[in-house]
Amino acid sequence: MATLTYDTLRFEYEDFPETKEPVWILGRKYSVFTEKEEILLDVTSRLWFTYRKNFPAIGGTGPTSDTGWGCMLRCGQMIFAQALVCRHLGRDWRWIKGKRQVDNYFSVLNAFVDRKDSYYSIHQIAQMGVGEGKSIGQWYGPNTVAQVLKKLATFDTWSSLAVHIAMDNTVVMEEIREELIYLDPHTTQPAVEHNDSGCLPDESFHCQHPPCRMSIAELDPSIAVGFFCNTEEDFNDWCQQIKKLSLVRAALPMFELVERQPSHFSNPDVLNLTPDSSDADRLERFFDSEDEDFEILSL
Question: Which family does it belong to (predicted)?
Answer without folding.
Answer: Belongs to the peptidase C54 family.
